[in-house]
Amino acid sequence: MAPRARLERSDFYPRAWLYFGLALLVTLVAFYPSYFGRLHETGPWHHLHGVTATLWMTLLVVQPLLHRLGRWDWHRRLGRVAFVLVPLVVLGGMVMVERMLNAEGRYPPGLPYQLGFIDFFVLTQFVLFFALAMKHRADMQLHARYMACTVVGPLIPALARLLPRFPGVETFQASLHLSYLLMHGVLVLLLLHDHRSGGVRLPYVLALGLMVAQHVLMTQAAGWEWWRAWMDGYAGLMPG
Question: Where are the domains of the chain?
Answer without folding.
Answer: 3-234
